[in-house]
Automatic annotation (TrEMBL):
InterPro entries the record matches: BBP2 (IPR011486)
SUPFAM superfamilies in UniProt: Porins
Protein name: Porin
Lineage: Bacteria, Pseudomonadati, Pseudomonadota, Gammaproteobacteria, Pseudomonadales
Length: 400
């Protein structure tokens, strides 16, 4: 099918084993998509895709080479089943599918994680338009367990990633400015979407996306500045565990939300790559806990990634992160109630793993992660009994 029509059918299956040292079955709520110790079916995904011939890709940025002179089109439909699927639920789209009704937040779910059309136009230096439901273009991480080389190669996730949007419904236009061969590349993205993880916006106010992407001439250095702004009131839904993770007000209120990410990555040499990501967010009327002594919520942080290729099929990955929130709504949301635990302050984490591909279609990944919470209120781990936590995990992913 790919040879005849350019259509690719693909998928992956990921399962993992998680253990922690806090004497409960509760792992760090905002580092993993699932929250329970033991064996979890994370994602079983199936996708069908046709990619347009282009020198710019939405959510990724500009690529070197001449601008294709003919318009082209493509599409993507990606379905996901498993414990992680709750992260990809879209309110008004797949949260109320029959297979998901009556599910607890920690149960497996089925989602249509992406369903969009994509068009390439030979204007400016090359243009790409996405229409539909698509994975967010914000942040350095991706929610799918992509094969290497991926932006990050970890089983767990950063606090900044888990406190941002997962997907959007709307339009995203990406374009590349004209550049001569051997020059650096500059691209821009603008989008209008139905907020965070929503197709049916209860407040009826769209969010605006505005991103800038720069690539060095040798494609070894990437700089990405990504932003989203809009009314975040009434777009979080505890009953389905979907919508925004930042509850604020009701659908009739106006509560502006802004989130920004700045990521710089650099390929030091063929075996070593580093990336630094900073993030900042603010939600008006987002400090829901009365004892927070404020109304607006802010959160921000930074993380550093180091990737070292030990051999052709074995890599060593390391990550250090710091995340701060001044209102408890921003950390450790209880998935069963949608109510934040009363923990805030600084969260620190270090993560290391080995990623081994014994065959091109199989990845095995042992990982260790250590978290520390420093701040007032309830301790963040072990159901409120610990201010630190060690998590050991092992995941296997089959790509097909």
């Amino acid at each position: 099918m790919k040879e005849d029509y350019g259509v690719k059918v693909y998928g992956w299956a990921q399962a993992g084993l998680i253990y922690n040292n806090n004497s409960t079955d509760d792992v760090s709520k905002q580092a993993f998509f699932n929250t329970d110790e033991g064996v979890n079916l994370n994602q079983f995904a199936l996708g069908i895709q046709r990619s347009p011939v282009s020198n710019v890709q939405g959510r990724i940025g500009p690529f070197p080479g001449p601008m294709p002179l003919e318009a082209d089109w493509g599409f993507n439909v990606t379905t996901v089943y498993g414990k992680d699927a709750r992260f990809f639920k879209t309110y008004g789209w797949d949260e109320d599918l029959g297979v998901n009704r009556g599910n607890k937040p920690e149960d497996e779910a089925f989602t249509i994680a992406q369903a969009y059309l994509e068009f390439y136009f030979p204007v400016l230096g090359g243009s790409d338009l996405m229409l539909g439901i698509f994975h967010t273009p914000l942040g350095n991480e991706a929610g799918f367990p992509l094969p290497s080389p991926a932006p990050t190669d970890f089983y767990s996730h950063t606090y900044s990633f888990m406190h941002g949007p997962a997907k959007h419904a709307g339009a995203l236009y990406s374009f590349k400015l004209p550049s001569a061969p051997g020059e650096s590349m500059l691209g821009f993205e603008v989008g209008v979407v139905q907020g965070w993880n929503n197709l049916q916006s209860e407040n009826h106010d769209p969010h605006v996306i505005a991103n800038v992407r720069w690539r060095s001439a040798d494609f070894g250095t990437w700089v990405d500045w990504e932003n989203i702004y809009g009314n975040g009131a009434g777009d979080s839904f505890a009953n389905c565990g979907c919508g925004s993770p930042m509850p604020a007000g009701s659908k009739d209120d106006t509560a502006q939300r802004y989130e920004t990410y700045l990521t710089v990555s650099h390929q030091l040499d063929p075996a070593n790559r580093i990336a630094v990501e900073t993030s900042y967010g603010k939600q008006k009327n987002g400090a829901l806990a009365g004892f927070a002594n404020k109304t607006d919520a802010t959160w921000y942080g930074a993380n550093f990634n180091f990737h070292h290729q030990l051999s052709e099929n074995l890599s060593w990955n390391n990550r250090a992160e710091w995340f701060y929130t001044d209102a408890p709504v921003q950390a450790n949301i209880d998935l069963r109630t949608g109510i934040p635990d009363p923990s805030w302050g600084s969260f620190y984490a270090v993560t290391t793993n080995l990623s081994w591909l014994p065959t091109p279609n199989l990845r095995l990944r042992p990982e260790a992660r250590y978290d520390i919470h420093s701040g007032p209120g309830r301790d963040a781990f072990g159901d409120g009994s610990r201010d630190s936590q060690l998590v050991l995990s092992f995941d296997a992913t089959v790509f097909f």
